[in-house]
Amino acid sequence: MKKIGEKGAVESYRACFRSIDDLEKIATQIKSGCGFKKKDSLYFAALKKDVDELKKEFEARKKYDFPVEWMEADEVKNKYLIENSYGGILSHQGGSIDAYTLAHDILYYNYKRGLKIFDKTNVQHTAYKRNEVIITTEYGNTIKAKKLIYCNGFESTEIIKENFVKLLSTYAIVGEQKKEQSILNDTLFWNTADPYNYMRTTDDGRLLIGGEDEDFVNTKKRDSLLNKKAKKLEGKLKKMLPEYNFRTDFIWAGTFGETEDGLPYIGAHSNFPNTYFVLGFGGNGITFSVIGMEMISAFLKNKKHLLTSYFKFGR
Length: 315
Ligand SMILES: Cc1cc2nc3c(=O)[nH]c(=O)nc-3n(C[C@H](O)[C@H](O)[C@H](O)COP(=O)(O)OP(=O)(O)OC[C@H]3O[C@@H](n4cnc5c(N)ncnc54)[C@H](O)[C@@H]3O)c2cc1C
Known about the structure:
This protein is α+β, with helices and mostly antiparallel strands. The protein is built from eight helices and 16 strands.
């Protein structure tokens, strides 16, 4: 609200809120095996000094009728056994999926309806013509199209010259639990720490915990920190849930983009004729992708969209 005004902030939040239900519909419609599950989401204060800001966030959400309640630290402890919280916002809108499986299921569904997919194919050059674009791949093949939609994530920084996103390396571990600890199964968790931590259980009964973000330098540097970051995450889990029975099975790192206002870039760019971008930066990339689908569909039909000015380049 401070950064872009109340209207833009509320409309962006509403769109993300709705997109969770839209994702559920899509997952159901295509019979995806992504394990979509509606969950609550607890955003808790990691430090006492964070409580005031978090309460303001809570009041703002309540004012606009989002289904939230405030949980005191002892309620958090009683319900979830989390030791080091100073209370937080429990939101009754959230969901978890295996995003990788959903992406593949969506592609396969559309492939059966005629979508052409060129997997493992690097786009190396694009010629922007008056009425079309011509893409050249790494193998020298060309693809012609009336319109091009780039969904190339953080690699968009290789073609867009201005400084519009900050890249971070982020880490996660996932592991089995040796005994039944279903207390966390219906809720997503994240905190106000900097860098923040988040955790949730997975459809196959594991626990996933992530965070420990730091500035991205290159993929080699990012991956060289894997073991160190995994140990840190295990330590954080131990502090949060001392009694939790956890054994790390997998660790991984990813790169993601953070924007000044936490919003994505979706729309046209003056240097790229006949082209749109859908860049789901900001850590809510999954919900932004649903909004991107709506917005680009509108643009292709020459229709306006409520969020255009909030997600545009050069805002
Ligand atoms: C560990 C981790 C946890 C996350 N957790 C969450 C979460 O819980 N909820 C949430 O909403 N978001 C989460 N995010 C963020 C979310 O994953 C991203 O915001 C989202 O994936 C961004 O989507 P995108 O389509 O913009 O880009 P991406 O998913 O990065 O996709 C870009 C694609 O473009 C391809 N590409 C790039 N350049 C080329 C080229 N020249 N030729 C061909 N292909 C190219 C890439 O290979 C890639 O497949 C998480 C991110 C990470 C890393």
